[in-house]
Amino acid sequence: MAREVSKGRKAAVTLLAWGVALLIFFPILWTFLTSFKTEGEAINSHPSFLFFDWTLENYETVNQRSDYLAHFWNSVVISLGSTVLGLIIAVPAAWSMAFVPGKRTKDLLMWMLSTKMLPAVGVLVPLYLLARDTGLLDTKTGLVIVLTLVNLPIIVWMLYTYFKEIPGEILEAARMDGATLSSEILYVLTPMAVPGIASTLLLNVILAWNESFWTLNLTAANAAPLTAFIASYSSPEGLFYAKLSAASTMAIAPIMILGWFSQKQLVRGLTFGAVK
Amino acid sequence: MATQASRMAGRLMLSPAVLLLLLWMIVPLGMTIYFSFLRFNLLMPGTEEFTGFENYHYFFTDPAFWPALVNTLTLVLGVLVITVVGGIALAVLLDQPMWGQGIVRILVIAPFFVMPSVSALVWKNMLMNPVNGLFAALARTLGLQPIDFFATAPLASITAIVAWQWLPFATLILFTALQSLDREQMEAAEMDGAGPVWRFVHLTLPHLMRAMTVVVLIQTIFLLSVFAEILVTTNGGPGTASTTLTFLVYMQSMLQFDVGLGSAGGIVAVLLANIVAIFLMRMIGKNLEA
Q: In the record, which residues are listed under signal peptide (chain B) (predicted)?
């Protein structure tokens, strides 16, 4: 009897949870479905959910506009480039703070975090002018540099919280056995640090991919990543919903798949280790 | 414990990150502060001159300033209330035994990964458009008049979009925190005859307090600089109805090319964010001790 009740309760909870989840997911689902409609079908005043003539023409059109692929490539270069560059700078820093902490390590970490609190708009003008004067405006290099610096505190923090969990005794033992610093890093630390570094990479690529302040303000035609490309679709006319949907689907799909793999790291990374 | 040599090596490894961040913080911020005391318009090069606090005076007396400040706070507070209350409800729901919990979680988190320009465009055109949007179609089916969301309630519409994007974040963090709740204590309370409401108020909520604080503080940092959603949907209008501080500074410096004025606004935004940041740093700093 008790079993019956709990099954009924489980069914009710399941129903409610699925209902709410589908409601939250609906705008994405709707975009996905609309991307397979004809433009006429997409603005039909009696929208059809599944029963329409499915077509791939929107994807073809969007892809034929070679600029879509160019923007996609810009997104890849900018998000991966800034992440890798950030890791190169942050790994030694986080390593040293986790394993050779000094009196000021804590203050240093807090200070790094504080640079993240600086609202972007507060430094918009000088960065725009600096980028313009150094010829880095609307270049991938410029955006890679800016996004590296924007996300560096998060990368350092995430790596730090991961490195902190590696037992220091292992390093001590390696040192006792006569390992040099470089072999200590290469053979002892690296294998243990790889999962943390991978998580950091994943989260940071997501953040950089979706970053929408600097990418919109520092690019025009050449280096615009998908965030800026999609924003240019901001037409009030409902003339190309289907194409907008196809472009949107392609812009968010890769990162959403990555994101689903990074649920746990997301919490840890975005709360700077305060919630695990 | 560490040897002198490893200490040296540690400093060496630390310095690139520290130096870069130091430059990153001091140079642009210093320039903004400097510009904020200049009469400096990109359309009139060569006319820069020191004007003291004139830009700040203009910024604070700009008719758009107060609406922008109020809009910023309304947007931030609105999104916070929706995401925290909704996030708690969703986290508790997700925590119940059910079938397909993994998939439900994936669906709920999804909006967080949608880039702001995409979510703004999708909501603006495909859902909220008064002629071709889905909501309009729904309203007509029910025999109601479709609403022109961005004309009648621009700020509320943007709040809804931003809340949709951040609800997953709040849910995910609160759900993670919920999983470390002491189940035995929960069961003991249940045995003692405590009802679900009592347990929620006296056990669940206090346990979530810390995660809630983190959610509020971190979201505030990001919400203070909401930009793409406004740019894509309303451009701050109609009038100043959906202009936030960030957007106001953007308009002054990038559209009116008034670098001095924009810089003064930027400094005001920095000060506002700092007030929030102080609280956040305390929270996280405490965690570092533990």
A: none
